[in-house]
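Key idea: predict the complex, not the pieces.
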Amino acid sequence: MNNQPHILVIDDEHQILRALRTILTARQFRVSTAASGEEGLALAAASQPDIIILDLSLPDMDGVTVCRRLREWTRTPIVVLSVRDGEQDKVQALDSGADDYLTKPFSINELLARLRVALRHSAAQSQVDQKSVITAGPLTIDLAQHIVLRNDEPVKLTATEFKLLACLASNAGRVLTHGAILSRVWDPAEADHVEYLRVFVRQLRKKLEDDPEQPRFILNEPGIGYRFIADD
Amino acid sequence: MRRFWILPGRGGYLLPFLLSIASIAVVTAALLLMRDDLQIATIALLYLLPVGISAAIWGLWPGVAASLAAFFSLNYFFIPPYGTLLVHQSQDLVALVVFLVLTTSISQLVGRISRNLALARAREREATRLYELSFTLSKLGREDDILKSLAQHTLETFHAGRVEVYAESEPQPVLVRVPEEDGAEIPGRPTALVSMQGSRRLLGEIRLWRLDEPLEAVEERLLRIFASQGVLALERARLTASESRARILEESDKMKSSLLSSVSHELRTPLATIKASVTSLLSEDISWEEEARADLLAAIDEESDHLNMLVGNLLNMSRIEAGALKLKCRWNVLAEIAAVSASRARQTSPGHRIALDIPEDLPLVYVDDVLMEQVFNNLLSNSLKYSPANSVIQIQARRQDEKTIRVQVDNQGPAVSEADLEKIFDKFHRVTAADQVTGTGLGLSICKGLVEAHQGRIWAENLAEGFAICFTLPIHAGGEAPRMPDE
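Result:
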């Protein structure tokens, strides 16, 4: 049995494929590559990879469509790649089931961090007992008991603040789109009210962060959403 | 005053005849009272009065009718034997015939003169209207204005109930209707319709509705002249528009080539560093010290980031220039956007201290957060470039008044000469010589474009100790501030 995680890279640029194959193989991944959407879909079905890296601009079909078609039958984590200014595409891909995104050009450290989080998250989902206590620096968040400690001191949160924090923290390391957070914490009908999110995130930061202007735990991803950073 | 006197409308033809005969009847009645005191010659002379007046007022044919009526009245009432049309004395017969000839001639003469006078007046009015129209049209440059003015003038000149001007225009045909507020259904077919035939193709048509009477030949001719004036004005406007389009294209062409030459230079500079470093690392005839290796790799890393920012800026610049910038505005916390930008700047340039001074109670702003972040990125990158190492760069935001937020990014760099304060927002303008500082010279002009797209204003200021770029953002660009949900 091969223990190396199997990674499928779907991108039409051969230089990127070549570079990623070399780099990821050196990092103990098994790498398959596909240069088009159709080829990627076929390879994903045939080889059952552990994680998929998907470029959003493919020659034969829209990356968002590939994402949607993959999600029809598999929960394999997907990390999408896109250029800057493609915020709309990224949000669409994330809302159609992608787990995370990276903006080209990216550093390999960023890519590895995203892959690690996505793999861990999918592993956690398949287990019955999900982690119910999350720690991030001085913060301890007990999702089951609804308790938040900061330097072992309890932090008073309103019901909505806790719901928001729980939503972010249980997806630690992954980006969540504004729409996804709003529809989970408030209501799918409120998915457009980014202003709620802005105000409540600011309140949370004031209660949790050392310096709310230089947040360490709740990070802003302009045009996309928020990302909670927990301890590894 | 309508043309009632000379050329009465429908149903009005009979009235002048009746009036002229009535005038004879009145004069006859008056003369009958004095029949015995007056001689026939005097009576005949007195009859000339109503005949002349009738002809002068109502024209030739009512004048002739009056002269005939006068002839019979004279014969019947004043030439013996009274009460008959018989004439006994031959000198009376001669007098009667002379009278008839005289009155008819007078009425003809007077009638023609007054008709000519009326015609001359009508022509003068026509000329005045035409002059007014062509004068007004010559001052207008926009097609809409021309059509509106043409319709309004037509409405007034022809006393019409409604006028429509239809024009085949790009991208879609235009229909102008006066009076505007009249939303009622069009009453059937237009009374008159003339086409506006341009030099190359049909440009449109004028439709006119006048309920009380049809257009006369003279009026139809005038309407056609109006149409041709409209054609002239439209063609002139279109020619001017296409000329200015051509000029804009030419200028943007020039802009593009100067952009390209500057850009290719700017793109090659980081590429040169990358290429040199990589080929050094690849070369097998030398084994690099660990430190030198790290140096070369750091240079590659920095320069590729620089290249990435350059490409992003170029893309934004071309979008701003092409007017293709699409804002995705949402309610945002300005401090949050500035913080993302500040933390990125701290990573790339740990030597500087970047401070945020944004009050907690600053209202939400309705902006595109991705583009606004780029404004901060460019302003910070500019400050980092021009201010000394270990100095402080500050982002400050304040509510300036009810409607505006003022943001200031200041540094402890050198002052900029007054003349350059405005110019630094121009493309490719640099205060320092190009070889001393890297960059496209695009950063600040992009900031200007982005801030202005958010309906703000941007300017540069010299401070007591340092330099600042300030910009404003309207608070109510997204309408009233949003309501917050209940807990």
